[in-house]
Amino acid sequence: MIPILSFIKEIHLGLVVTFVLLAFLSIAPISNGLADKSELTKLILGSEDPLINVNDLAFLLVTHDFDAMPKGDYVEVRLNNTIYKLVPNGRYPGLANVTLES
User: Fold this and answer.
1) Which of 21, 56, 77, 81 has the fewest CB neighbours in a 10 Å radius?
2) In what order do the strands lie in the sheet with 74-79?
Protein backbone atom coordinates (compact mmCIF):
# COMPACT_ATOMS: atom_id res chain seq x y z
CA MET A 1 0.00 0.00 0.00
CA ILE A 2 2.94 2.37 0.57
CA PRO A 3 3.94 2.36 -3.15
CA ILE A 4 0.38 3.47 -4.02
CA LEU A 5 0.59 6.43 -1.60
CA SER A 6 3.95 7.42 -3.08
CA PHE A 7 2.45 7.24 -6.58
CA ILE A 8 -0.51 9.42 -5.53
CA LYS A 9 1.85 12.02 -4.01
CA GLU A 10 3.85 12.12 -7.26
CA ILE A 11 0.69 12.66 -9.30
CA HIS A 12 -0.44 15.37 -6.88
CA LEU A 13 2.92 17.14 -7.14
CA GLY A 14 2.82 16.87 -10.93
CA LEU A 15 -0.65 18.44 -11.02
CA VAL A 16 0.45 21.29 -8.76
CA VAL A 17 3.51 22.02 -10.92
CA THR A 18 1.38 21.90 -14.08
CA PHE A 19 -1.19 24.26 -12.57
CA VAL A 20 1.50 26.75 -11.50
CA LEU A 21 3.09 26.71 -14.95
CA LEU A 22 -0.25 27.22 -16.67
CA ALA A 23 -1.09 30.08 -14.33
CA PHE A 24 2.28 31.71 -15.05
CA LEU A 25 1.86 31.35 -18.81
CA SER A 26 -1.64 32.80 -18.75
CA ILE A 27 -0.47 35.88 -16.80
CA ALA A 28 2.74 36.53 -18.76
CA PRO A 29 1.10 37.93 -21.95
CA ILE A 30 -0.90 40.42 -19.88
CA SER A 31 2.23 41.98 -18.44
CA ASN A 32 3.90 42.22 -21.87
CA GLY A 33 1.09 44.14 -23.57
CA LEU A 34 1.63 46.84 -26.11
CA ALA A 35 3.29 49.98 -24.87
CA ASP A 36 1.20 53.15 -24.60
CA LYS A 37 1.85 56.88 -24.76
CA SER A 38 2.28 57.28 -21.00
CA GLU A 39 4.97 54.56 -21.03
CA LEU A 40 6.69 56.32 -23.93
CA THR A 41 6.63 59.64 -22.09
CA LYS A 42 7.90 58.02 -18.89
CA LEU A 43 10.78 56.36 -20.73
CA ILE A 44 11.78 59.51 -22.63
CA LEU A 45 11.50 61.91 -19.70
CA GLY A 46 12.78 59.51 -17.05
CA SER A 47 16.21 59.08 -18.60
CA GLU A 48 18.98 61.34 -19.83
CA ASP A 49 21.87 60.59 -22.15
CA PRO A 50 23.44 63.58 -23.91
CA LEU A 51 25.33 61.24 -26.26
CA ILE A 52 22.36 59.15 -27.45
CA ASN A 53 21.98 59.05 -31.22
CA VAL A 54 19.08 58.06 -33.46
CA ASN A 55 20.07 54.39 -33.70
CA ASP A 56 20.61 54.07 -29.94
CA LEU A 57 17.25 55.72 -29.24
CA ALA A 58 15.46 53.42 -31.69
CA PHE A 59 17.14 50.38 -30.14
CA LEU A 60 16.14 51.48 -26.64
CA LEU A 61 12.53 51.97 -27.72
CA VAL A 62 12.35 48.60 -29.47
CA THR A 63 13.70 46.84 -26.39
CA HIS A 64 10.81 48.42 -24.46
CA ASP A 65 8.21 47.02 -26.93
CA PHE A 66 7.70 50.16 -29.01
CA ASP A 67 7.35 50.05 -32.79
CA ALA A 68 10.33 52.34 -33.51
CA MET A 69 12.36 52.91 -36.66
CA PRO A 70 15.31 55.28 -37.21
CA LYS A 71 14.61 57.74 -40.05
CA GLY A 72 17.54 60.03 -40.81
CA ASP A 73 17.90 62.43 -37.88
CA TYR A 74 14.85 61.21 -35.92
CA VAL A 75 13.06 58.06 -34.73
CA GLU A 76 9.56 57.29 -35.92
CA VAL A 77 7.37 55.59 -33.31
CA ARG A 78 4.01 54.09 -34.28
CA LEU A 79 1.68 53.84 -31.34
CA ASN A 80 -2.09 53.17 -31.46
CA ASN A 81 -2.43 54.34 -35.09
CA THR A 82 -0.47 57.51 -34.29
CA ILE A 83 3.01 58.35 -35.51
CA TYR A 84 5.40 60.24 -33.23
CA LYS A 85 8.68 61.84 -34.26
CA LEU A 86 11.44 61.66 -31.63
CA VAL A 87 14.57 63.74 -32.09
CA PRO A 88 17.47 63.14 -29.68
CA ASN A 89 17.92 66.37 -27.73
CA GLY A 90 21.53 66.14 -26.53
CA ARG A 91 22.19 67.99 -23.28
CA TYR A 92 18.58 68.99 -22.62
CA PRO A 93 16.36 67.08 -20.12
CA GLY A 94 15.01 63.74 -21.31
CA LEU A 95 16.22 61.65 -24.21
CA ALA A 96 14.36 63.30 -27.07
CA ASN A 97 11.90 65.94 -28.20
CA VAL A 98 8.59 64.32 -29.12
CA THR A 99 6.28 65.71 -31.77
CA LEU A 100 3.09 64.30 -33.27
CA GLU A 101 3.43 63.38 -36.95
CA SER A 102 -0.07 62.02 -37.61
Assistant:
1) 81
2) 67-71, 74-79, 82-88, 96-100
